[in-house]
Amino acid sequence: MTAKSLDRIDLKILDVLQQDARITNQALADRVALSPSACLARVRALEAKDLIRGYRAHVAVDRIRSATVVLAMVAFRRHALEEFTAFDRRILGMQEIVEASRISGEYDYLLRVIVNDVHHWKDIARLLLGGDYGVEKIVSQFLMDEVKPFSGYPLGDGPTGKRSS
Question: What is the CATH topology of the domain spanning 61-142?
Fold first, then answer.
């Protein structure tokens, strides 16, 4: 499905749900000027087309347990698909790695890792460096403050600025 096959109401539904996934169908219908049944049908269609991949709560993990967030950039010695695949399999099984992206540039991956402390991070870094994945180096940075946490993607192609309401 392309953006051109979505109309402004679909985009509005997606935008509102990114901001508040717990909104009632009635309130969502009111926000996008549809009847509740038509709104629900559109949401179900967006889910069926895999444009809505899930609903999550943003949990304040640092208020629940000791938590240090590490942003780690990982570089490989060579760009071999089998090494990337093995690395992908390894990190998918690690609960501490909460986000991973393969990126372009000097580094090959950007990881978001949650650990108890720096010692916990050192153990994970050693594991990744010592594995047979072809990892050459890991550069890590510790998150100090989330100034603007992720709250959804801009869905329009207009100028940046304020979010539509």
Answer: Alpha-Beta Plaits (3.30.70)
What CATH number has the domain spanning 3-48? 1.10.10.10
pTM of the model: 0.81
CA distance 47 to 41: 10
d(CA 45, CA 52): 9
- With residue 98 as reference, give the H or E element that holds it: strand 97-102
Q: Express each pLDDT in 87-118 by its tens digit.
A: 999 999 999 999 999 999 999 999 999 999 99
What is the distance between the alpha carbons of residues 100 and 109, in angstroms, rounded to a whole number?
7
Domains in the chain: boundaries: 3-48, 61-142
Distance CA 153, CA 19 (A): 10
Sheet of 97-102, strand order: 97-102, 109-115, 68-76, 135-142
- Flag whether pLDDT at 124 surpasses 80: yes
